[in-house]
Model the fold of this input.
Amino acid sequence: MSPSMIPHDRECTPAFAWRGFMLDCARTFWQPELIHEIITLLGRYGFNRLHLHLTDDAGWRIQIPEFPELTQTGAHLPREAFDWYDNVDSDKRTVMIASAPQDSTCGYYTDDEIREIITHASSEGIEVIPEIDLPGHMHAAIRSYPELGDPALAKLPPEHWSHRNDLLWPTDQSWALIDAALTHVALLFPSPIIHIGGDECRFEAWENDHALMDSLASQGIHSGRELQESMTRRALEILHSLGKHAAGWDELTEIAPADVLDDTLIIAWRGFGEGPRRAALSGQPWVYGCCDQLYLNRLAGEASDEPAAMFGVITPKRILTEVMEEITQAASAPIGIQSALWCEFVPTREQLYYQLFPRLLAVAEVAWHGLDALDGTEMRERIDTEMEWLASQGVLGRSRS
Done:
């Protein structure tokens, strides 16, 4: 492999200790071969964290021995229509979903495949961070074991469920799942950090179950928010008992006080400055991952010219000029930055690389050089040169930057 042009000076000390990329493996199952390909590229560009989003509503991608149905059912759900999304062109969304390979949502990683991924990543200087998203975004787990979700829906077929049914109910079965899943990934992954999600919990589903809320009142739990805090506290206790600590999305700063979060790392994702603002004020270590600038599943150009992608155009220039501007205004400094690729509308290798490049090169530049990141003509020339090299390797990104 030829020497990397980006970052352009590997002799300097990187600006950020955490230089991360998150890949959504739940909504699209990426074969291990593709994960290895991405790891090689991340190593080339100086990234040192690969965050694997292994569970979500759309799929469960890791074996948990005590719960085999998670991979027998939860890893083989059809791709959803995502017709409730209002932040994407509806016609292009329909076309993308209809054209997605039917097997693109089917599969999971065996423990041996995970170990091979970890070994390869380590050789590239990359730590693999697993995510088990809880207590929300659990639709795939509940499809596998309906008793984990709303008890009023447990005996009904999913097509008759009256709501999303993606929240774990605080039952013995759910506690057993949380314990088994976190224990398994903690033992499988060497990383000291296990990501526990914590985002986008629909509290009203719990709160509408009056029997549940009445039963929790004796424990001092009177709202969905307090219930999530209780479940988060329990998850953190499990991880700490295993010598691990947690990462989570920035909603956790609203759910649990600092003494509960302890050393939890916060990934600040929410846009309009909300996530970074809360993370910077939380007192927790945090990573800048704002969706406005670093979610590479957003449009790369004008919507009329692009395939289905979430609204909000992100260009290399925006990344190079805006990320550090936002970070320098934060109340406390993050330990790093992290970009992400969510895969509702990214069903193929070709679409994945179209969304990633050249924008991931700009992320790498900022992650490595911070305020000293290049911009302007020299950076465009470096990007053009690297895009030519990528094309020679069969990695075809977006030709217009």
